[in-house]
Design a protein that fits this description.
Length: about 525
């Protein structure tokens, strides 16, 4: 042992949970990597300060594990990671040299424990023992301990060094063990024992946790109440590390000769802390496969989407319909209990879907929307496999009216609009052109798959009611829709022609359908006429 080289000594420190090394991040660097190393500089500034306890929550497939592997590679003793970071932004920071491979790092992936250990009342005790056994490989003196916190304290006494603790998917226990009160109570006790304020300063230089949901409150306090949280609702100043930014996606599109406009329609739509962010997994998958598609898998969160849409909270159905039609809807995120079970209102469901990544949140306007084509497809899939028959009917009916419009079948369009009016709109509110506009927007929900929708646009000598402009790659005709109340559908069509509304399409080379729709209060019938223009 006396002749052991320094490299061998370093390798001896690499364990299963303690100082796992840089192999994970090296694998990431061997493929296309978007530089997110600025996160390290942020954490360096937090080390050994009251802000050193960090919890970052974001949806699945938004790079949580990539970030933890990067942090492990940077901080862990027992390896040399200089080459992995030499060409990244962090190498330019003043803190780079000071902290590079200078800490004992414990890395815990809670999903790994859940997949390899039996879910019994002893689960948390098994997790503690697994970690203690690994620590004892490097520090045999702690093998006699039965509590993780005691092992860490003894390790601190032996080394005189503070740890960095990284916990990936810390909230997986609450997602996977719902209803297992004994397991969850023990897990909460474990977290509280680790993060007691009296011990935190002694043991940890920093803690970085990831999860999907923000930290849940239990009674009047949280299990880890001293953490600084950064979430999809409150991300600042880490918003640029939540996903890929616009500039990063544009750079990737240029490098791989991809159409940024189409990439934007498929995967943009999240505005987090004022920054547009994209789902990294979906962007990279679309580049790898050379195909724009939905790359979200049907995991537990997909089931949650379907189940929560099926909940009969007042106003939830109308909100979903409005969002499918491209609308933004107000939401109060304050009452959410940060779990997947304590749903008491429409706002709770909408807030959960923000954290799961199924809704985009505008923090200035406090409203939500379906962010992009990929997520819209997930909503449609959830609706088709759910129990809300009225939502499914709305989607199918919208498909039919869009097809009838393309086929210039005005009679069929009018029939479907009549159905929607009779079934979904109270007569007392159906009394003007604005009410008609609401019905038409509901009727054309499926237009979002093919069109960008604009309303009341100055055009020619007037204002066009609704324009459906084809999205990039769509081969469908543009639609100009004019609405009338107690007049005639032909008069609506004539207005489009007489006031030259088609001038708004200057430069557009595709076909155009002019759609005139009227409602007659006496007959209580809608009429529609459609004319094609080249």
């Amino acid at each position: 042992m006396e002749n052991m080289t320094s490299v061998q000594k370093k390798q001896k420190l690499i364990g299963k949970y303690l100082n796992i090394g840089n192999a994970g991040f090296r694998s990431i660097r061997n493929s296309e990597y978007v530089d997110k190393s600025g996160l390290i500089d942020f954490m360096n500034r937090c080390l050994n300060t009251p802000q050193k306890l960090i919890c970052v929550s974001r949806p699945r497939r938004f790079g949580k594990s990539f970030a933890t592997k990067m942090l492990c590679a940077y901080y862990s003793r027992g390896c040399d990671s200089r080459d992995l970071f030499a060409d990244l932004k962090i190498a330019e920071a003043a803190s780079f040299e000071q902290n590079l491979n200078q800490y004992d790092v414990i890395y815990l992936d809670i999903t790994l424990f859940l997949s390899t250990l039996k879910q019994s009342d002893m689960l948390v005790a098994q997790i503690e023992q697994e970690i203690i056994d690994d620590l004892a490989q490097s520090y045999p003196e702690i093998a006699v301990e039965h509590r993780l916190v005691d092992s860490l304290c003894k390790m601190n006494q032996i080394t005189g060094r503070k740890l960095i603790l990284i916990i990936d998917e810390w909230d997986a226990m609450f997602r996977e063990c719902k209803g297992a009160d004994e397991i969850l109570d023990n897990y909460i006790l474990l977290l509280r024992s680790l993060f007691k304020s009296s011990l935190t300063d002694q043991l940890f230089a920093g803690v970085y946790m990831t999860g999907i949901l923000p930290i849940k409150k239990y009674g009047h306090e949280s299990a880890v109440s001293d953490f600084y949280e950064y979430s999809m609702v409150e991300p600042r100043p880490l918003q640029e590390y939540i996903g890929f930014t616009t500039e990063e996606v544009k750079s990737l599109c240029q490098k791989y000769d991809k159409d940024y406009t189409i990439m934007q329609e498929w995967y943009d739509g999240y505005t987090v802390g004022g920054v547009h962010v994209y789902n990294p997994k979906s962007v990279m998958e679309s580049i790898l496969r050379d195909k724009y598609s939905s790359y979200w898998t049907k995991t537990e969160t997909y089931e949650a989407l379907r189940n929560y849409i099926d909940m009969n909270f007042d106003g939830l159905k109308d909100t979903v319909v409005d969002m499918l039609g491209g609308e933004k809807c107000e939401v109060d995120t304050g009452s959410f209990q940060n779990d997947m079970t304590s749903m008491k209102s429409r706002d709770d469901v909408l807030t959960l879907l923000i954290h799961l990544g199924y809704l985009a949140y505008d923090e200035d306007k406090r409203c939500v929307s379906i962010p992009n084509v990929e997520i819209r497809e997930e909503f449609i899939r959830a609706i088709k496999n759910g129990n809300r028959t009225e939502l499914m009917k709305a989607v199918l009916r919208s498909d039919s009216i869009l097809q009838a419009t393309w086929e210039k079948d005005g009679r069929k369009v009018a029939e479907i609009v009549n159905e929607i009016h009779n079934e979904d709109t109270a007569s007392v509110f159906y009394n003007n052109e604005q009410a008609l506009r609401s019905v038409i927007k509901m009727a054309y929900l499926s237009s979002m798959d093919y069109y960008s929708k604009m309303e009341e646009i100055p055009a020619g000598k007037g204002v066009a009611d609704i324009l459906f402009f084809p999205k990039a790659g769509s081969q469908k005709p543009a639609l100009i829709v004019e609405l009338k109340w107690n007049q005639s559908e032909q008069k609506a069509l004539n207005q489009i022609l007489d006031k030259k509304y088609t001038s708004i399409l200057k430069g557009y080379q595709g076909d155009v359908l002019l759609v005139g729709i009227n409602y007659n209060e006496k007959s209580k019938e809608h009429g529609c006429v459609i004319q094609e223009m080249k």
